[in-house]
Amino acid sequence: MKTQSTRSIILGAAFLMATSAIGPGFLTQTTVFTEKLAASFGFVILVSIIIDIGAQLNIWRILAVSEKKAQDIANQVLPGLGYFLALLIVMGGLAFNIGNIAGAGLGTNVLFGVSPELGALLSGLVAIGIFVVREAGKLMDRFTQVLGFVMIGLMVYVMFTASPPVGEAVTRTFVPETIDILAIVTLVGGTVGGYITFAGGHRLLDAGIKGKEALPQVTRSAVSAIGIASLMRIFLFLAALGIVSQGLTLNPDNPAASVFQHAAGNVGYKIFGVIMWAAAVTSVVGAAYTSVSFIRTFTHFIDKNAKWFTVGFIAISTLVFVIIGQPVKILVLVGSLNGLILPIALGVMLIAAHKAKIVGDYKHPLWLTLFGLLIVIVMALMGGYSLINGIPQLFE
């Protein structure tokens, strides 16, 4: 029974991370860049998957071995650094969550015709309900797993109806016609940037899966998480590519919805509503849980009342959307900015991996250290490049 429970937690952590990544921004970014780069976007996905795995493996293993949350590790590396990292994560998580709530509102609008604002409020209440119940952790695991499988199943159906040029997609994945730095930074930021890469790692810690003896389970969960998110990205890319390659135009106000509508008519549009809502509300849960996990170790008061801080986080995100709203460009922008948080967070974890006072007698694999270091350098350079050159173009 214990083994079954552990398996459920490992899978739950993987789905929490993956569904945190698969939000409205994920759907929007993938569609926007497929329209721009066509089959060459496959190369961007390939590079981002390699970077995602390297970042995730490093961070989750170090969290498990140290048996500490990321902010506490950062404070041990340099006093005060944990508070700075927590500030970055919480700000990014809040910004993303406003977009997630917006996506949930859009999903309910497509499905039931209610206003996005009312849909957002109702979806916020659903997310809050998960954290109010006694077995919140188990319910969160099951909720993200069920909706994760629903999203993937529906996405596969739409991909096949779109009839994508798979041969060309495979070729351009390895021999791209164009390479887009902003697209790579945005995808990595949207998959393992900001709070997302810590979602599953912190969940495993909270569930008691930690220490050197748990490393095989942690590694399996980390790779599974990237695999789930990457499968969804590939299916959506192929669906969008099928539509774009037919010369059909996507609606700039809601490009992802256009893909589903062109592929399967009104049924496709309703499927988009289901996927958008599921992607959004699971991301709301993941963002709220992980953001609060970054501050709960700072004081006993926050730790004791973590449930209500999480509820408050969701409530604030919902109210901000209802009052202000969230355009498509901001979803792409936040993904890019989250990509800039990754080199800082991963860099801190790599330093911690080689400090005995944090990891004890654990020896971090050299190949993982070098892989992680390469990601820190590449993401810092690409992130800086996109900040100076790419992001301003979004607002021209």
UniProtKB/TrEMBL annotation:
GO terms for cellular component: plasma membrane. Keywords: Membrane, Transmembrane, Transmembrane helix. The chain crosses the membrane at residues 37-60, 81-104, 110-131, 143-161, 181-201, 222-244, 271-294, 306-324, 330-353, 365-388. It is found in: Membrane. Its main location: membrane. PANTHER family: SOLUTE CARRIER PROTEIN FAMILY 11 MEMBER (PTHR11706), TRANSPORTER PROTEIN (PTHR11706:SF2). This is Divalent metal cation transporter. The lineage of its organism: Bacteria, Bacillati, Bacillota, Bacilli, Bacillales.
